[in-house]
Amino acid sequence: MLFDPRPKLKREELFGRDVELNLLHDNVNSPIIVIAGIRRIGKTSLLNVFLNEVNIPNIIVDLRDLHSNYGLKDLFEILSKALSSRLNKLMELLKSITSIKILGGEVEIKWKGRGALTLPTLFDSLNKSRVIIAFDEAQMLRGPRSMEILSAIAHAYDYDKNLTFIFTGSEVGMLHDFLGIEKPESPLYGRYCFKLNLERFKRDVAEEFLLAGFREMNVKVDKGLIAEAVNSFDGIPGWLTLFGNEYVRGLKNLDKIKEVAVNMALSELKNLVAGRSKRYATVLRGLAEGMNGWGKIKGYVEENEGSTISSSILSNILRSLEDLSIIKDYEFLDPIYKEASLRL
Question: For the chain, where are the alpha helices, taking DSSP H only?
């Protein structure tokens, strides 16, 4: 179902992404694949469909809940869940690893002490067969263990030719910073990777997506409302899906559906700026109010705070917001995030 809010699993559920899917198939033997794009653009759906189409055992490591100062225990707990979910495909490979036990259909990993599992050992063991290892929201791996993880992946790049690593990320700048393909100090510096940047739907594709979704549900919708919805949600598949799903379920008012979306975005924005300087919220509000230049946003912050702000601090805030894929060149990448920023 096109309007199912859950990540898609089959090609027929994934609208308008045949070109991107085919590119992934063409590059399935690349040692590293990077899938990047803003939130709700459909990265997880694209990844799921691709992995379901290739006849290769795979692991999806969902990193969304990994906290910033994670330790080995946190990392291996997530790996344990990922391996357990693919046990039927990986049983024989995992049985050969002495630091792994399989009990009751779940994988237990010894991560501490003598005989503890290391990432290079895990990758070397999986390399006995063709395996794809996908890290969803891989920018979450930034932190105290990042060099250790990157070194293990660099080892696998050089010695484990049966492995392909896929990294997805919504915070595009953070993702590229973590991988460090272009940073001389990174273990992955200079390594080849296939990069796929997932873009929003063009207007005609966005309108056809909504029309197809409503046809699928036998719901008639005025084309004027379709156009208004695309104006509001700007071709971002996740928001278009939310609109279609809410409308089919009985919420027929576009403004009310948009309010649902804005509240979701506001909650996410609050989480993103939590723990950061309150100036992040001030900068976001200013950008949302149209302060689309250095002098304008600097003046806005100083006027609101009644204090000067150093150029270096403001520059760092703007750069961070770009790395988080919230803005680019003083403009919001998602109109719903712009609306939500007015309420910070």
Answer: 18-26, 43-53, 72-85, 87-95, 119-126, 146-159, 172-179, 203-216, 223-233, 237-248, 254-273, 279-288, 294-305, 311-323, 335-341
Asked whether residue 9 is assigned to any structural domain, the reply reads no
Q: What is the per-residue pLDDT across 245-262, written as a single tens digit (0 to 9) for each?
A: 999 999 999 999 999 999
Question: What interhelical angle do 146-159 and 119-126 show, nearest 10?
Answer: 30
**Does residue 94 sit in the same domain as residue 212?**
no
> Among residues 181, 197, 213, which one ends one of the domains?
197
Question: Which pLDDT value is given to residue 275?
Answer: 83
The total of structural domains in the chain comes to 3
Q: Using one digit for the tens of pLDDT, what is the confidence trace for 308-336?
A: 999 999 999 999 999 999 999 999 999 99
CA neighbor of 84 nearest in space, from 112, 110, 104:
104
Q: What are phi and psi of 145, to 5 degrees?
A: -105, 5
Q: Kindly state whether residues 206 and 276 are assigned to the same domain.
A: no
Do 342 and 240 reside in the same domain of the chain? Answer: no
Place of tokens 């506001």: 266
Q: Is 108 strand, coil or helix?
A: strand
Q: How many residues does the chain have?
A: 344
CB 339 within 8 A of CB 265: yes
Do residues 29 and 152 both lie within one domain?
Answer: yes
- Measured distance CA(209)–CA(8) in Å, rounded: 14
Instruction: Identify the CATH number of the domain in which residue 23 sits.
Output: 3.40.50.300
Give strand pairing partners of 103: 106
Domain hosting 26: range is: 17-197
